[in-house]
Amino acid sequence: MDAITSAVIEGAKSIFKLSLSGIKTLSKYEENICELQEEISYLRNKKILIEEEVSIAIMDGKTPKQQVTEWLRKVSRAEDAVRPLLQMLQTPDENINGRSFKMLQQYQQSWRVANKLDHVKELNSTYFETVAPEKCSPIKAMEEMQVPSLVGQQAASDMMKLLEILNSDDNKRIGVWGKGGIGKTTSVKNLINHLCNSSPNSFNIVIWVQVSRELNLSMIQTQIAKRLHLKVEAGDTTHSLANRILRRLKMRVEATRRKILLVLDDVWEKIDLDAIGIPSRDSCCKILLTTRSFDVCRDMSVDVPFQLNLMSEDDAWNLFVQSAGSVLYLDGIQSPARKIVASCRGLPLAIKTLGKSLRDTPQTAIWRNTYLRWRCSSPLFKNIEKEVFRPLAVSYHSLPSKILQQCFLFCSLYPASFSIDVVELIQCWVSDGLIHENQTVEEAFNYGVALIEHLKDSCLLDQDGGQGTVKMHDVFRDLAILLSQNEELFGFHCQSSLPFNQMPKESSRRVSLIGCKIYRLQEYPVYSNLTVLFLQGNPIKIIPDDYFLNLKSLRVLNLSKTEITSLPSSFLCLVELRSLYLRGCFSLTKLPSLEPLCKLLVLDLSSTPIRELPEGLGSLCRLRELNLSYTRLLKKIASGSISGLSSLETLDMSFSAYNWNPKMGSCHQNATFDELLSLDRLSVLKIRLDSVDSLASASSWIKKLKKFDIQISPNDSNYDAQSNEKRLVLRGVDLLQEHLQSLLHNTTSLSLLTCEGMAQRHWLSLSSLMSLTISNCSGIRILISQERSSHAMFPNLQHLVLDHLKNLETIVEGILSRGICLSNLKTIQVFDCPKLKGTISYAMLRHVKKLEEIKVSGCENMCRVIESGGQKKKNLPVLRVIEVKNMVKLRTICDGMWVCPVLQQIEVSHCFQLKKLPISVGDSCSLKEIRGDVKWWNNLIWENHDDKSFFLKHFQAYPREDCLKRQKYK
């Protein structure tokens, strides 16, 4: 009974508790709903934070903890369960009837809310100290690199320019290129260190990849994966790893909204960035590559190719001091040390290596010996060969063909720092068989230029300062000589500009002994394989009679600037000869018959005192290029000699004394101009004619010439041969002669000196003219008159020179109709035209929007250079240079103000009435220099002191000695 009673009591208690709990739950219904909303919101935010931590951990190569992964799953399920519950509570069912049923439903909902609330609270109470174990260190955005600091102002300037290029949003791909050993890798590593120290947050991540000479995509991917803490599995393919790299990089970008920078060092060929997993087309990715070849920059479609140049003399010395140390300050060391640095020609690799090799070496004798021998293949300098020449040799071995390799080695036949004439170099390549000879001169030249450009783009050959010349860096020339010793198949032997002390090997094929101070040649050389022999610049007076007997394979012979008086009889054995250079042999007055040289392609007799061309010249039916320029004593060319040169394409007789227009009744044993007309293949002609009579029947023939430089002058007068395509110089000629018309129509560069008929000359027909010079022609008063002008006059004229025209009153008269008249004019120069009061009239100003240079001097009555026509502002958008000199009445360059956004230079001399500059501070952002007399500068009038201060920093006064010379001249 007691047991039953006890059970009933306990049951009643349970029912009471349950009822009480239900009543309590029901009473907190509204409060639980609000609390559930708060808790689930807090849980969502916490989930977002944990997910971000997981993403970052994955990017850092970590694996999230299993508890974290499981918690995220529970949270997602809880969200899915709570979302519809809260939506249902916010939208009550209006169709439910009956109070009892409604209370029952509310009671059930209150239990569900309370249950979910407890579960959400439990999830919110979970805490993770870390979401993933520290398997590896976190990925740093940038890693400082081990690299020597940059030395010299140029290197620092280059780095800052490169930084500016890199920071520009427009530049997605940047190529740093230059010759081996110039410091590309050092510069870029210093750039990365600069970013690391000054802008550590500028990139999400910087990835450095060392590219091998033999392109290996897997190796590149492995380096990138290691930087991203991606584990590379044994079964990974290039494609699968590329996908993983791509996902990892995109996750990093999306997480931080910052760009990635991929640096590819020492690239030799095009790399498919998509194939290795780089989002190269995405704006989030920047590529910076270093290469020795400009071709790689082109193939990789870089936005900015940035070329590193050789070090300046001061920077080179500072780098050497840093490498060699305090030993340089010992007595007797600095002199040979500076010579050593100079011999490195600004190449950092050679400078550093030599400096380190001589560090702490106090013996003066060793320093002097190093200067004399370091670039030779000497056992004393094996470390130099290993550390300098071996890395540079990679560029040579990377050339795509044996022909290009031989072309590179061929350039070493010329002396150190020698300006190699491009035309002669290509002629030699053709004659030696490196370029196929069965093509026209123009085709061979174009192909040769392509080879030269490839060598330049590979940084194995340099552009020289002169036009039409190239140069080989001294260290690369020594590399070529060193390589040629190992490439015996090519047979190069070079001893240029050194005293002759070593005979070439009998197997040699190309031998250069330029400027070796050779006075006598050996009697009977045995070089049966010899194809090229350079002997120019030696004081050789006599060549032994039998010298050429055993050189029957010779194809190129250069005896220029020797002192020979004749060629030996054995010379006629050279039946394989293609090129013969006798330029500047000032003692050579006569040549033997050239008839046996039936394969000759090039003959250069320029600057020789020959009085007649040799016999047998007319039998050279394969001769293509004949240079007779500066043959000032040449009087005789046998009749038929020229017409027999049926393959001739280029004839240069500029500054030659030969008369192509014999007077009536004179002996006709000489070749006449009619023989030139028979040369169907002639395409380049440089010649002087006494009169225009010879041109009577040459109209159609002249049109076939691709280039010409013709001077028509009664007397032999000097003029500068230019590289213009079609140049004509007329001196003392009547311009109205009918025979001139066809020649004038085809001319691109015209010089008129003391000519007649200027006033009646109609310029409308000269549509091909690009350059016009008129000098000492007193008949010209107006160049372009309104009544005889046309909108199409001088449509292609780019350069205009007017010199010593005493009656010239105006260049353009009146208003010209709008059109293409003078629309391409770039430069105008006016000298000593006393009646000219202005250079550019308002009528002319409207047409010359491409004008870049204005130079005016000695026009004593000129008051202003440019007339405004009443306009307050004149726009010359591309004008860069303005020079005015020796004009005492000049008061203004331009009345009013110019708008010249790219003006760089103003020069004023002896124009003391010129009181104001024609430009304002706001239009002078490109100004680099104002040169002039100090007296003139001090008398200038300024709007305010700030303007004067601004322009003063650009002013450069004439040196005192220049002023004294001008005063003396005046």
UniProtKB/TrEMBL annotation:
SUPFAM superfamilies attached to this UniProt entry: L domain-like (SSF52058), P-loop containing nucleoside triphosphate hydrolases (SSF52540)
GO molecular function terms listed in the Swiss-Prot or TrEMBL record: ADP binding; ATP binding
Gene3D superfamilies noted in UniProt: Helical domain of apoptotic protease-activating factors, P-loop containing nucleotide triphosphate hydrolases, Ribonuclease Inhibitor, Winged helix-like DNA-binding domain superfamily/Winged helix DNA-binding domain
Gene source species: Lactuca virosa
Biological process annotations from GO: defense response to virus
Domain NB-ARC, chain residue ranges per copy: 159-324
Alphabetized InterPro entries for the sequence: Apaf_helical, At4g27190-like_LRR, Leu-rich_rpt, Leu-rich_rpt_typical-subtyp, LRR_dom_sf, NB-ARC, P-loop_NTPase, Plant_NBS-LRR
Nucleotidyltransferase among keywords: no
Protein's name in the database: AAA+ ATPase domain-containing protein
Domain Disease resistance protein winged helix: 413-480
Domain Disease resistance protein At4g27190-like leucine-rich repeats: 765-860
Family: Belongs to the disease resistance NB-LRR family.
Keywords per UniProt: ATP-binding, Leucine-rich repeat, Nucleotide-binding, Plant defense, Repeat
